Amino acid sequence: MTRTTHTSQAISPPPNANLARAQESNDHRSTGSLYSPEERQRRDDSVWTVVQGVLAPLQFLVFIISLGLVLRTLSSGEGAFAADVSIIVKTLILYTIMITGSIWEKVVFGKWLFAESFFWEDVFSMLVLALHTAYLVMLFGAIGTVEQRLGVALAGYAAYVINAGQFLWKLRQARLQGSTPQEEQQQAVPA
To answer: Tens of pLDDT along 82-118?
Structure first.
């Protein structure tokens, strides 16, 4: 029993900490900053930041491989099983990155999802998740043709590319906001 309580405290801050986080969030959002100094520190100290940093490129690698297999199946009619397996793997990694990302948001911002700094990224992530889940329902429910099922997967992949672009943009913003004025100038001027 003690262990469970300790674990939940590591993930969920006490209620008064949530109020403090809400206030600091409101204070720095008015300046256009992605993170308050406290949020930046929690982000930098969190193991979940590292987890996200590992899962994101892994998911992209699986996406590239799977996209090739899906396009091969759609163009030649061959390899549907391999395409299906690759989409399942991509979907499992997506669920993993969504769950760990939600934990990351809770640690950094005090909210499981839809923190102000990442609200629209989370909204679009829900679309990506819905399309991937629809593909799984079609696959395991034997709904539609192979082409229709792979079409849903491609729609999910297109949404994933847009969502990945959103997160890359936020990563760039965070790096620029975390830089000193001299570093920003060096990043802005090509060498």
So the answer is: 999 999 999 999 999 999 999 998 998 888 888 887 8
Residue carrying the six token digits 């940093």: 53
**Domain span at 94:** 47-172
Confidence (pTM) = 0.72
CATH number of 86's domain: 1.20.120
Q: What's the gap between Cα 140 and its chain centre?
A: 25
- Is the distance from CB of 100 to CB of 48 less than 8 angstroms? yes
Those residues with Cβ within 8 angstroms of residue 34's Cβ, 6 or more apart along the chain or in another chain: 117, 170, 173, 174, 177
Evaluate whether residue 8 is within a structural domain: no
User: Please, are residues 118 and 160 in contact by the beta-carbon 8 Å criterion?
Assistant: no
Q: Residue 61 falls within a domain, yes or no?
A: yes
